[in-house]
Design goal:
Elements lengths: L4 H5 L7 E6 L15 H7 L2 H4 L2 E6 L9 H14 L3 E3 L14 H6 L4 E5 L2 E5 L11 H12 L4 E6 L7 H5 L20 H11 L3 E6 L11 E5 L3 E6 L9 E8 L2 E8 L5 E7 L1
Parallel strand pairs: 1-2, 2-3, 5-6, 6-7, 7-9
Antiparallel strand pairs: 1-10, 4-5, 8-9, 10-11, 11-12
């Protein structure tokens, strides 16, 4: 995780490809995983689940606290997958200021922005951005949009379309996220981020991972506008366990598949270019 993506992804070969996305992957608050949440690890360890996947993204809260030992156990699980894995840090990954910045020390970077063939990718750091896209991420977002990609994929931990003000005013249900720790008081999504994405001549997809934990938390979310699709998913709540996303990028559009960790349920949604 963390190094230059081109080193791991290789040259784009012009064909369709897939990637996997998981959020809140340490799982249950009362029994946090040592490594990946076991139901997720059980599925992602299967070669047929990873078939066609070029990489995976973890959308934050990958460890219950950022002790180096927890990241060692996580890396052991990720090594089994045989895929490049990128991390968008969450509040649990950075919540102990008395500990060193393990993510930077271990992986070298806290945010990534890169092109893969005709598509652009931003792996952001809302944990350090106060629940918003930080200035560095906004700079990278604008640069990527200027490169006129076919599609833009943004990966974050926090659902940046949610903030404390929206919850207080009743515009967003409190269970729309795992909790408001680390969320902005009044976020920059509506006034800054959404106009940038909406006015660009590209299809934009924003993935977030702060879902699925707590007794009332929802497991998955998706909504679409003309150019912008917002997607979130997570895991760990006792009775429903959670979801991950398998995303296919093809010449004519993007297939977003929601996969439940238990029960075999799957839902596919298509966004045409």
């Amino acid at each position: 995780m963390g190094e230059a993506p081109e080193k791991f992804l290789g040259a784009y070969d012009g064909t369709g490809y897939r990637f996997l996305v998981g959020g809140h992957t340490y799982g249950r608050h009362d029994a946090p995983a040592e490594g990946l949440f076991e139901p997720l690890f059980r599925l992602w360890s299967r070669p047929e689940v990873r078939e066609g996947a070029r990489f995976a993204v973890l959308c934050g809260d990958v460890v219950v606290n950022p002790h180096p030992n927890n990241f060692e156990e996580l890396d052991d699980d990720l090594a089994v997958l045989g895929l490049p894995v990128f991390l968008a840090p969450g509040n649990h990954d950075t919540l102990k200021p008395e500990l060193p910045d393990v993510i930077t020390l271990r992986y070298g970077k806290r945010r990534l922005a890169f092109r893969y063939g005709p598509d652009a990718y931003l792996v952001g750091d809302t944990a350090r951005g106060g629940g918003d896209l930080a200035p560095e991420d906004l700079t990278d977002l604008k640069r990527l949009l200027l490169s006129r990609p076919r599609a833009l994929f943004v990966f974050l931990h926090h659902l940046i379309w949610v903030d404390e003000g929206k919850v207080a005013r009743g515009e967003v249900d409190a269970n729309a996220v795992n909790g408001l720790i680390g969320y902005a008081r009044e976020g920059n999504f509506d006034d800054v981020v959404l106009p940038l994405l909406g006015e660009a001549n590209t299809k934009a997809f924003v993935f977030a991972g702060d879902l699925g934990a707590g007794s009332g938390a929802v497991q998955t979310f998706e909504t679409r506008g003309d150019n912008v699709t917002l997607v979130a998913g997570g895991m760990g709540e006792h009775s429903k366990v959670g979801v991950y996303h398998s995303v296919g990028v093809f010449s004519d559009g993007v297939e977003i598949e929601v996969v439940w960790l238990e029960g075999g349920k799957r839902e596919k949604h298509w966004v045409e270019f």
